[in-house]
Specification:
The structure is a homodimer of 273-residue chains.
Chain A lengths: L2 H11 L3 E4 L17 H13 L5 E3 L2 H5 L2 H14 L5 E8 L3 H14 L4 E4 L9 H4 L5 E7 L5 H5 L9 H9 L8 E5 L4 H10 L5 E3 L9 H6 L8 E5 L1 H4 L7 H22 L4
Parallel strand pairs in A: 1-2, 1-8, 2-3, 3-4, 4-5, 5-6, 6-7, 7-8
């Protein structure tokens, strides 16, 4: 999927919602657990209930890998089930030397057919370049994450008061573009997201941390949206585990619709739709 | 495996050799390719030929994941085949928030039975703590890696001239110990490894970059060994792809023996054996 296709989907669906498929066998509704592939069955119902509201899905690899081979089968079936016009993000946070990154790129972009992968920037551009050889595929670099301890590292400052995460973003501008690179910025980083927008006014930002993590959708959106929307907000637990009854899909849809409505109102206010 | 068991193995085998099982289906000897599970058959022969010379094996996950499900089956069989007294490192370079790290820890330490996993430090201690809940299991934090572009990030300096990788190591000292944490330092970082030893005199360092990457084993060893040896040097391509004939195991053993002999002489010179 290329840049303008993503922007189009946002305008068509009036939504910049990404749903995190962090599907944990211990948390899914009980009635699914006796089926052949409970994780896939869970994901399938989530996708059916939300595919007109979400512009992206983001499975975190850890949830699938921890289930061994069967987890990867569930993942592959899930990827196949997601409609083509929806952006598919592998939340994998990989980052290795070039030769090895090439193998990961093959795995995620070819075997699984993801559109994008999250990457750790610690080893520099070598870990990113092999992914950028694929047309219409994306890397999403960790920049300023939402977890508590991240600031111990990401706020490490040079003698010009430049923070590591700012340096990471600036460094990436030398070898990437808004057509193939996004950045992860936590929804709790409200004070800094405007500074990030100055460095990357046109790139998409992937924003986790709304919902269960308690941050406000409207506030972070109004501080980071650009003319093409330019943000994708991920919500996982607050949507996918909103109910555990046999009709959980209805509650899941309600929750997703609630977020989509709020996003529509924000996009409208910003003159994007 | 705990700290003193590793030190014991080093003394018994007179070796601190780790063999990187970066087993690529396109590079293994042709005569193995028609077997049921070529990657496992390749690894099995490498292990048989070197298990008295190596104290650790380190499969890089990318090589297995890129083969899909069959790759993970090869990996699981390989892990089972490695003798118990040999240290098993998952070169996975993961790094995610706590809840997700917990899932990865389960996958690597329980499903696959690895002894250690390499981690990216970019998200701070949250990504490491879940792994440290396991007794006798290890994290190996990326500190100063050997790839070209790493310095753009890892040499980012604060106003006291402290570099990011030094800060990463120092930060980790607040929540880890020499009994559960090692650091990756590239063999080409000769000038800095003595500085690193000042910060972590007692921790093990995992050193890649000898062999195909052209750095000298003796020089990096003499600059980093401590009283318990304290280093594990990884060699991958230079050993595992040293020959592609039907008797490649012999050449593999010769190569590993050459490194072990050199290591024995260094350990002897340092008074460790």
């Amino acid at each position: 999927m290329n840049f303008s296709e993503i922007v189009n989907q946002i305008k068509i669906k009036k939504s910049y919602l990404c749903i995190g498929l962090d599907s944990d066998i211990e948390k899914i509704p009980n009635h699914l657990k006796n089926l052949d592939d409970p994780i896939f069955e869970f994901n399938k119902r989530i996708i059916d209930a939300t595919k007109d509201l979400a512009i992206a899905y983001k499975p975190n690899l850890a949830f699938y890998e921890s289930q061994g081979f069967s987890g990867l089968i569930s993942l592959k079936k899930t990827l196949k089930y997601i409609p083509n016009n929806i952006f598919k993000i592998a939340d994998a946070k990989r980052g290795d030397i070039g030769n090895t990154s090439k193998m990961y790129a093959k795995s995620f972009f070819e075997t699984f057919n993801f559109d994008a992968i999250t990457l750790s920037p610690y080893m520099g551009k070598d870990s990113s370049l092999p992914y950028l050889n694929y047309d219409n595929k994306w890397i999403i670099l960790l920049a300023l994450t939402s977890n508590d301890s991240s600031l111990n590292i990401q706020h490490f400052k040079n003698n010009n008061d430049k923070k590591l995460y700012q340096h990471v973003i600036e460094d990436s501008l030398n070898w990437s573009s808004k057509e193939n690179t996004m950045y992860v910025v936590g929804a709790n980083r409200l004070e800094e997201i405007q500074e990030i927008r100055k460095i990357v006014p046109y790139n998409f930002l992937l924003i986790p941390g709304v919902g269960a993590q308690g941050n406000d959708l409207r506030e972070i959106s109004l501080n980071s949206i650009n003319d093409n929307c330019g943000i994708i907000v991920n919500i996982s637990r607050d949507i996918i585990y909103s109910d555990s009854s046999t009709s959980f899909e209805l509650k899941v849809r309600d929750k997703a619709l609630e977020y989509q409505n709020e996003m529509e109102s924000i996009l409208d206010k910003k003159g994007i739709i």
